[in-house]
Amino acid sequence: MADNMPMLRKDLAAVARKARLTSAVNDVDSIIAQLLEARESIAAGRDPHAASLILTKLQNPIKEGFETVNNDLKAVSKTQKEFGKALDRSFPITPLPTEYDVMQKHPALINRAIAMHLLREGHFDVSRVFMDEARDMASMITNVTADPDHNGYGGDGDHEDEDAAMATGGSLSDSHEAANFTQVESKNLQDKFQRLYSILQDIKTHNLGPAIEWSRANSDALEERGSNLEFELCKLQFIWLAKSRSHDLSPDDSEGEEDDDDGRNASGFGMSQFSNGMSAAFGYARDNFDRFRERHLAEIERLSAALVFASNIGESPYATVFETATAFEDLAAAFTREFCSLLGLSAESPLYVAATAGTIALPRLIKFIGATRSQRTEWTTASEMAFETPLPASMTYHSIFVCPVSKEQTTRENPPMRLPCGHVLANDSLRNLAKGTKFKCPYCPADGQIRDAQQIYF
Ligand SMILES: [Zn+2]
């Protein structure tokens, strides 16, 4: 399949080249021009017979014009069709395994995931409509299951009965959840995400004010998470002010400075524009950095020292600190992550992650299903994949470590320990192996002291 990609790319390039509507547009324009011209001559002429003559004369050219346009469009559609065929050849339709629909039993959870995804993407209206309709559906299902006639379902065998009961039972409890989500949670979440979007928009235009304001208001919660967001934002504000000489010139970028917390934009200092930026940064540091002194003193000293190199930061040892090429983008991503985590949500949309991981796993799933079918065996572990799926590192969560000795997953109370030889055991296993303060590694087997073993943090 992948072997066909270069060929497909070539075909796609040909489509982009050939399937253009330029000639069709030009030909339509020329028809319009002819019609306009005819209208003007009729309007200008006084003789009513002249009008019908003009119209008669117009017939053939217009008819030809339409034919030309049709031919133009035919050529475009032919190229598109050919590419469609090439796509079909390269990606033959494979029937997807659909007999086991795990999702079916949790319609409300699925709806919730979809609604949340829409909220996260900023499609607030779509999300609201979706949730209203999902709620209507849920109440319909609830009514149906409350209907005693419907519960009198039976006769088709025990197994099917059980499945039906599970499905309706599931949707009953799920629908309750969905209703709660729609009415209370969603409005709240929508407000929060609207705030997030407006702050991200401001960060994009280099206006850090609202982001700093939010992080200051939530500074306790952020600190509890060990987040440096507030300091990082203030740091970038400082750097941006210090560099403001170069972007004072562009009206776009200067917005950031207007909205900045620090009002004295140094115009009263009577220096060049360049030192204005530096003194604004200095003033900002004086007013704002004190609160971070305990945690970030070294960094603050570094930033302050950089001001000494005001005239040629670019060639100073501080050049990398003042590099802001991706700084706003990076901070926007960090901001989203922290904002979502304070809401108890992951930074990435779970629906997006699940769908992407599912797509990556799909070829293997199809292969696996094919293999089990041909061997007439069945996939018994329904809630678990029967094969490994190689997912990118960004989709690996909660690194875990299972002790090779005790076969138990390590915990905060029983953390993984790295022995001097490089092997890793759970702390409990290590203590059990040890004789006094010494132990012998069960794998190499090197001798070591317990105090030389180091705890590993994931
Ligand atoms: Zn070892």
UniProtKB/TrEMBL annotation:
Keywords: Cytoplasm, Metal-binding, Zinc, Zinc-finger. Transmembrane segments: none annotated. Residues 403-444 form the RING-Gid-type domain. InterPro entries: CRA_dom, CTLH/CRA, CTLH_C, Fyv10_fam, LisH, Rmd5_dRing, ZF_RING_GID, Znf-RING_euk. A zinc finger (RING-Gid-type) spans 403-444. Residues 192-249 form the CTLH domain. Residues 251-262 have a biased composition (Acidic residues). PROSITE patterns: CTLH, LISH, ZF_RING_GID. It is found in: Cytoplasm. It comes from the Eukaryota. Residues 247-272 are annotated as: Disordered. Involved in the proteasome-dependent degradation of fructose-1,6-bisphosphatase. This is Regulator of gluconeogenesis Rmd5.
